[in-house]
Each structure stands twice: as C-alpha cells, then as structure tokens.
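pasting for the record
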Amino acid sequence: MKKSKPTEVRRKMKNQKNKPIDKIKDGRISLLKWENSNKYGEPYTSFSLIKTVMKRSEDDPSKFEGQFFNLNGLTKKDLKAIIGLIEEMMEGEQEEEAEGWS
C-alpha cells in the first residue's frame, strides 16, 4: 500500500459560526480543530476526525457518492490515547511480521 505524504491543508476559518478553526488532511482522513466555550463562557478546544469513503451510487453505478464517518468532541487527551493505541497496534503487527505471520 502506498503511503501518502501528509497534505497539510490548513484553512483558517475565523469569524464563521460552526466552522473549524483549523484543518489538516491526509488523503481521505481529516483532523479538524474547534474552539468552543462552555455554559460559563470558558473556552476549550475539541477535535473531530473525519474519513470520507466513496461508494457507487445505487441509482447510477457510474457515479460515486461520498459518505463521512465522524468522531466528534475529541480532546487532546483523546487524541493522545488514539495515537497510543495505533502505536501499540503497529508494534503488534511488526512482531507478527518478524515471527512470519504476515
């Protein structure tokens, strides 16, 4: 599988309601950064992971439709946990490959 280079598409969308303040994209996966405030007006940051999956249209098989899979409301702590899980998974895969299970 060809690994794509991160395409750092950063779009600052300030002063627009319900828009992320930053976005990074790598292929069909995007990470969005949001600025929010709680009911007391205190600011906090959250993140969303989005993956776009294309499928053939049921009405017209020559056309493709995009579907989005979202994980919203993630904190920096959540992102660190996700990174840790991915690293742990990758270590397991490398050990299996070394043992001849690939």
